[in-house]
Amino acid sequence: MSSPLLVTGASGAIGTHLATDLTAQGVRLRLLDRRSPAAGPPADAEFVQADLCDQEAVERAAAGACAIIHLAGSSQEGSFADMVEHNITGTHHVLEAARRQRVPRVVLASSHHVTGLNPASGPENEPLAPDSFYAVSKVTMEALGYLYAHKGGLEVVAVRIGSCRPRPSEPRHRVTWLSPRDATALLYAAATRPLPSRFLTLYGTSGNAERWWPRTGWDTLGYQAADSADRHPDPGPLTDRWTGGAFADHQLPS
Fold first, then answer.
1. What pLDDT, in 10s, does the model give residues 134-186?
2. Helix (H, G, I), strand (E, B) or coil at 1
3. 14, 100 in Cβ contact below 8 A?
4. C-alpha radius of gyration, the chain, whole number
5. Backbone angles phi and psi of 159, in degrees to 5
6. What residues contact 165, with CB distance under 8 A and at least 6 apart?
């Protein structure tokens, strides 16, 4: 790969691991974040310090990239205004930069929370049922990706990431866990493998025996999970803060 792969949110937990793994594999990277990585960027990677609110800076970072893996944004529930600024507007800037700079593909870090209010025992092809303002922002992210794929000339893959942790740490992770190693494999495949259509949505987990969601798209990308939550028999107590819903901390005015 002669042109760099641009990774936004490269100083976050997933971005840091992704950058380390891909650099070790000889992938040329351009890393973007508004803060420098705690341990510094990998020696062979280019680092761009910029905020996604700065459209011109995002466009400069996208110039010449072969693809973009978009991880930047708020990863926790917050106010609706925060979700709009960091997750929706930031994603729009990334997709628009890709369109203007003719970057052929964008991988969007969506979330399994876009279907979080569906029952766990529901059908595999669940309708959208966001469980928080964060999830609503990810639904909008996917909608923007669909628009830019079909009217902006891009290829877009929206990966509904499960619970990306070093190891499963609570009971629901038996189903939702995505190991850092598998996250690297899945996101890189999403950025590089041929697609059957301009827009693809899939769930991102490790090869856990228990599952709620279809694995549609895994074969398309050639993704084969190396890890499974079943190898970690004691996931710990339930600590999922999302179960309180969007209004637990951010009540709408009556």
1. 999 999 999 999 999 999 999 999 999 999 999 998 888 999 999 999 999 99
2. coil
3. no
4. 17
5. -100, 115
6. 173, 177, 178, 179
- Vertex 63: Cα angle to 153 and 199 (nearest 5): 25
Q: Give the pLDDT band of residue 222 (cuts 50, 70, 90).
A: very high
Is residue 223 flagged as an active site residue?
Answer: no
Question: Cα–Cα distances in Å, from 206 out to 12, 72, 100, 171, 177?
Answer: 20, 22, 35, 15, 6
Task: Please give the structure tokens belonging to residue 197.
Answer: 């259509």
Measured between alpha carbons, how far is residue 209 from residues 85, 160, 174, 203, 230 in Å? Answer: 37, 18, 8, 15, 7
Rounded (5°) CA angle 2-4-5: 125
pLDDT at 254 over 50: no
Catalytic residue among 134, 188, 203, 223: 134
Read off the pLDDT of each residue in 202-218 and give the average, rounded to a whole number: 94
* Other CB atoms within 10 Å distance of the CB of residue 253: 3
To the nearest 10°, report the CA torsion of 29, 54, 50, 133: -90
How many other CB atoms are found less than 10 A from the CB of residue 54?
13
